[in-house]
Amino acid sequence: MSQRRERRTYTQEFKQQMVDLLNSGKPRADIIREKEFDNKLIDTTLKTFAIKRSLSKKGCPYDNAVAESTYKSFKAEFVYPNTFDTLNQLKLQLFDYVNRIR
């Protein structure tokens, strides 16, 4: 039986930022690209759990495909459907994701 994912929620501050950016005339595609999940959270998470990041060298797409696929799954399954109010909440939910859900 699959688990139902919770709907993503956004803070009022985030919503206001989006409205302000749209009203300023910034193209929607630029706003989306700017606000997408970036590697900072991945870096923080890896550092928190003392995990060494290891990516392939430039020009070696076969090794990189595995990393990119992993990031895509992580974002789709864990990051996008969740919001975290505290670092501790992130740690607990990430632990559950890695050790129970997957």
Structural class: mainly alpha
Gyration radius from CA atoms, angstroms: 16 Å
- Helix tally equals 5
Report the average pLDDT across residues. Answer: 77
Give helix % range: 55-70%
Give the ordered list of helices and strands.
HHHHH
Distance between the termini: 14 Å
Q: Regions with pLDDT < 50 over 5+ consecutive residues?
A: none
What fraction strand?
under 5%
β-strand number = 0
Backbone shape:
globular
Major pleated sheet: none
Pfam families: rve_2 (PF13333)
InterPro entries: Integrase_cat-core, RNaseH-like_sf
Protein name: Integrase catalytic domain-containing protein
Domain Integrase catalytic: 68-99
Structure description:
- With 102 residues, this protein is mainly alpha-helical.
- It has a domain at 38-101.
- It contains 5 helices and no strands.
- It has helices at residues 12-23, 28-35, 39-48, 61-79, 87-101.
- The longest helix is centred in the last third of the chain and has 19 residues, at 61-79.
- The radius of gyration is 16 Å and the shape is globular.
- The protein starts with 11 loop residues before the first helix and ends with a helix.
- The relative contact order is 0.11.
